[in-house]
Design the sequence.
């Protein structure tokens, strides 16, 4: 195909629990199988970002202590660039703690942490247990229903602001808050979700969707070469089955 997918991973040394780095490994290997170049850059504490230099931005989940420090650094050194990238339609994938950081704020113990305000959402603390377990959601991609499977483990309850659209509807598991049956958010090409596991190896079709979106730089749809996905499809089915068995 002769193209290159340029990816910026935000704070990969600290925001990588639940095997989240596996998301980048899968993207790289599927690009290689198609003859697409793959460039992965890390933006760590204090680093600035050129929003035009990348096609896809990624941030995983982290420990609470790390998220507080990262939130402060993101506001200071990266917020404006990330907001411009989102407005320009660049693809962003934010998982768990990264998802919470997209919003206006999230509560942590007795603190309220300011977020990036790229998406209208808030994460609050409410009475009740952590939301833990396998989860399956249904979403619509280009008019076709699809399913994502993963694992969630979060104490915060996330509520979307007016006008925001969830990533999908919960089939099994808890989702954003355990009450409104929504999971994640989609804002333009910004995707936020609580699905770990990691997400993309369990849902290779979604990795391809994000890749095609990111490579369509001028708005022209990109068609990726099909791959032999016998193992990937089996992993997806296993993840869906795990979610169904834990249906609440």
Sequence:
């Amino acid at each position: 195909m002769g193209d290159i997918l340029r990816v910026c991973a935000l704070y990969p040394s600290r925001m990588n629990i639940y095997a989240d780095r596996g998301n980048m490994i899968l993207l790289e290997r599927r690009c290689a199988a198609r003859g697409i170049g793959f460039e992965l850059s890390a933006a760590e504490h204090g680093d600035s970002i050129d929003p035009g230099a990348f096609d896809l931005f990624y941030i995983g989940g982290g420990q609470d202590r790390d998220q507080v420090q990262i939130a402060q650094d993101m506001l200071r050194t990266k917020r404006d660039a990330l907001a411009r990238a989102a407005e320009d339609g660049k693809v962003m994938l934010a998982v768990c703690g990264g998802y919470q950081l997209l919003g206006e704020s999230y509560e942590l113990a007795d603190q309220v942490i300011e977020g990036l305000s790229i998406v209208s959402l808030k994460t609050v603390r409410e009475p009740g247990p952590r939301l833990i377990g396998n989860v399956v959601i249904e979403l619509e991609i280009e008019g076709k229903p699809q399913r994502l499977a993963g694992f969630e483990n979060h104490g915060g309850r996330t509520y979307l602001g007016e006008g925001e659209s969830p990533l999908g509807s919960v089939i099994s598991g808890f989702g954003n808050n355990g009450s409104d049956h929504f999971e994640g958010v989609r804002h333009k090409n910004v995707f936020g979700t609580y699905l770990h596991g990691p997400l993309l190896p369990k849902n290779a079709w979604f990795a391809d969707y994000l890749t095609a979106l990111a490579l369509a730089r001028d708005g022209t749809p990109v068609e990726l070469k099909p791959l032999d996905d016998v193992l990937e499809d089996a992993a997806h089915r296993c993840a869906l089955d795990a979610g169904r068995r834990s249906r609440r």
